[in-house]
Amino acid sequence: MLYATGVLQGSILSPFLYSIYINQLPALLRTQPIEEVPSTDTRRFAQSINCLLYADDVILIAVPQDLAILLQQREDHTHRLGYRWNPLKCVILAPSSDTQAYSLYGTTIPRQGIFSYLGIPINPGGYLNTAQLIQDNVNKALQTMNQMTTIGVNNKGFDRLLSVRFYTQIVRS
């Protein structure tokens, strides 16, 4: 089967090629070059950032009146370069006062009250949900400890020094 677009799934070059491919998007979405904002003015500098990218995970940051414009610019970018986002894998994280429906390719983007980006829970307004983050980390640590108990990291299994080394390498990493 011959594909006209996309990168080969599983190839070690795919993330690198995708990064080159998507690299134009932040500059396209910016209203002003980031160099024009002094980095010493952290509040203005933070306000000049309207998107975050990590591989194929993209966050658009905007007030409601600008979000529709950013979504349209993002959609136009996909048409020019021949790729497509999945609107059903996108999420709108907006305050309850924002009732506007946002769409991509004519499909309404679903809303959520909290969203996890790269494992960090975010509330509307872009605030980190620290209580949820701590609880998630505690749950992951407990789950890992329970799994380690079954392989011998317990009172009747490995000696204490080895158990401590397992703990520091696996749970604390």
UniProtKB/TrEMBL annotation:
SUPFAM superfamilies: DNA/RNA polymerases (SSF56672)
Source taxon at top rank: Eukaryota
Residue ranges of every copy of the Reverse transcriptase domain listed in the record: 1-122
PROSITE patterns, alphabetized: RT_POL
Name of the molecule in the record: Reverse transcriptase domain-containing protein
